[in-house]
Amino acid sequence: MKLIAKDVCKSIRKKTILSNINLELESGTVYGFVGRNGSGKTMLFRALSGLMKIDSGSIFLDDKELHKDMPFLPSMGIILENAGLYPEYTGMKNLKLLANINKKITDEQIADAITRVGLDPKDKRTFRKYSLGMKQRIVIAQAIMEKPDVIFLDEPTNGLDEDGIEDVRNIITEEKERGALILLASHNKEDIRLLADKVFYISNGVLKEGIIDES
Predict the structure, then answer these.
(1) Is the pLDDT of residue 17 over 60?
(2) Strand partners for 58
(3) pTM (2 decimals)?
(4) N or C: which end of the chain has fewer CB within 10 A?
(5) Three state DSSP letters for the chain
(6) What are the C-alpha distances in Å from 123 to residues 98, 101, 120, 138, 193?
(7) How many other C-beta atoms can be found within 10 angstroms of the C-beta atom of residue 85?
(8) Residues 6+ apart with CB under 8 A from 12
(9) Paired sense of beta strands 2-12 and 15-26, if any
(10) Do 124 and 156 contact (CB within 8 A), yes or no?
(11) How far apart are CA 71 and CA 20, in angstroms?
């Protein structure tokens, strides 16, 4: 499977957000995206997933074009900043509500995803009472629970302690081995160095392929 972007451009309030983005991404690979806050990483993920329409250019999943043949990628998991889970519900109930949209997985599979990220699916605390690290873990669980073909991870290790970071890195490796196409944006150089097969640097909406910093 390939995710392809051709000459993708996007402007918001006359400011260029994405400038002539060209990418060809393949299954079973982790792609690292590096850039400062506001550089365009999150907007690129929104565009490639279908959550944001582009001004010009084309995005294809194999031979199907985004916003023409499909409104968004049919099998994806995504973590973006400010994830919107219901604060008054438990982690399990939140994920059950999300899983009910596609009706692809069972409660047991949801519980397995929660366990994989180091949480207890039977925990009765509401999302509101979760620590920052727990919130990040449950958001990662929702991104992987349906075993999607494409996974977008925007700063997945934010707010996690060392054990949590290690757990997430292991999950990313496992998902890659399963055959997922993974797009990883991280300010953590170790995340990129350890996980990315290829790295891109983005600045002011301009994307360039780079070399992974091994230092």
Answers:
(1) yes
(2) 6
(3) 0.94
(4) C
(5) CEEEEEEEEEEECCEEEEEEEEEEEECCEEEEEECCCCCCHHHHHHHHHCCCCCCEEEEEECCEEECCCECCCCCEEEECCCCCCCCCCEHHHHHHHHHHHHCCCCHHHHHHHHHHCCCCCCCCCEHHHCCHHHHHHHHHHHHHCCCCCEEEEECCCCCCCHHHHHHHHHHHHHHHHHCCEEEEECCCHHHHHHHCCEEEEEECCEEEEECCCCC
(6) 18, 23, 5, 12, 34
(7) 20
(8) none
(9) antiparallel
(10) no
(11) 21
Alpha-carbon gap, residue 145 to 153, rounded angstroms: 14
pLDDT at 38: 87
For residue 185, give the amino acid letter: A
Token pair 């925990």 in the structure block, residue:
123
Q: In what order do the strands lie in the sheet containing 64-65?
A: 15-26, 2-12, 56-61, 64-65
Tokens 């180091």 found at: 118
Q: Encoding tokens for residue 64?
A: 């199907």
Length of the chain in residues, anyone? Answer: 215
Q: How many CA atoms lie within 13 A of 180 on its CB side?
A: 26
Q: What Cα–Cα distance (Å) separates residue 198 from each residue in 33, 38, 185, 195, 201?
A: 9, 21, 12, 9, 10
Write the single-letter amino acid at 154: D
Q: Using one digit for the tens of pLDDT, what is the confidence trace for 63-121? A: 999 999 999 999 999 997 756 789 999 999 999 999 999 999 999 999 999 999 999 99
What the block records as the tokens of 52 is 């944001």
Residue type (1 letter), 200: F
Amino acid at 3: L
Angle 71-72-76 (CA atoms, 0-180°, nearest 5)? Answer: 155
Instruction: Kindly state the tokens that stand for 90.
Output: 């438990």
